[in-house]
Amino acid sequence: MYKFILLLHSGFRYLVLALMLWAILQSLAGWFGKKEYTEGNRKVNLFALISAHTQLLIGLILYFISPFVVFAKETMREATARYWTVEHIAMMIFAIVLITIGHSKSKKETLPEAKHRTIAIFYTLALIIVVVAIVQSKRAFFGLSS
Predict the structure, then answer these.
(1) Which residue, among 93, 100, 99, 89, has the nearest Cα to 125 in the 3D structure?
(2) Which residues cross the membrane (predicted)?
(3) pLDDT tens column, 39-90
(4) Half-sphere exposure of 103 (CA within 13 A, CB side)
(5) Tens of pLDDT, residues 109-134
(6) Which of 58, 81, 55 is nearest to 70 (CA)?
(7) Which residues of 129-142 are buried (b: 16+ CB within 10 A; e: fewer)?
(8) Does position 3 have pLDDT exceeding 90, yes or no?
(9) Which residues of 91-106 are buried (b: 16+ CB within 10 A; e: fewer)?
(10) What percent of the chain shows pLDDT beyond 90?
């Protein structure tokens, strides 16, 4: 079961990254191009949010069955155990909080440029954190490694 969940989590990241990039690019275009905020914009932003939350749920399952997550006082001294037990999950939860706040704040904005700007800023910050967390794991970014 661990291998399946790991493969699912590793593969699903590409959907999350693609939707995040799509949402960011369309928001930047809408913000700087002073375009209307359309139903299509709303759906892409929502799908990016949903995919990130789904990835979090898959990650939480993986977190509790992973052999790399160690709940012991020695965890903080060992870099690999510390990364998987504390750092990775903290960065990813923070990124998803940013996505959620950005999505929520954009819904409250009245001007189209403000909606686009809010999504662009919050989703970009979240994407940077996600990429840093993936790169920091020393795993292949474009490969499905275990």
Answers:
(1) 99
(2) 12-32, 44-71, 83-104, 116-135
(3) 999 999 999 999 999 999 999 999 999 888 888 888 888 888 888 899 999 9
(4) 21
(5) 999 999 999 999 999 999 999 999 98
(6) 81
(7) bbeebbeebeeeee
(8) yes
(9) bbeebbebbeebbebb
(10) 76
| Angle between helix 39-65 and 88-108 (nearest 10) | 160
Q: Which long-range contacts (CB under 8 A, 24 or more apart) does 118-125 make?
A: 119/23, 119/24, 119/27, 119/45, 120/24, 120/27, 120/28, 120/31, 122/98, 123/20, 123/23, 123/24, 123/27, 123/45, 123/48, 123/98, 123/99, 124/24, 125/95, 125/98
User: Backbone phi, then psi, for 23, in 5-degree steps?
Assistant: -60, -40
Where exactly are the structural domains of the chain?
A: 2-136
pTM: 0.89
Please tell me the number of Cα atoms within 13 Å of 74 on its side-chain side: 2
User: What's the whole-number average pLDDT of the chain?
Assistant: 92
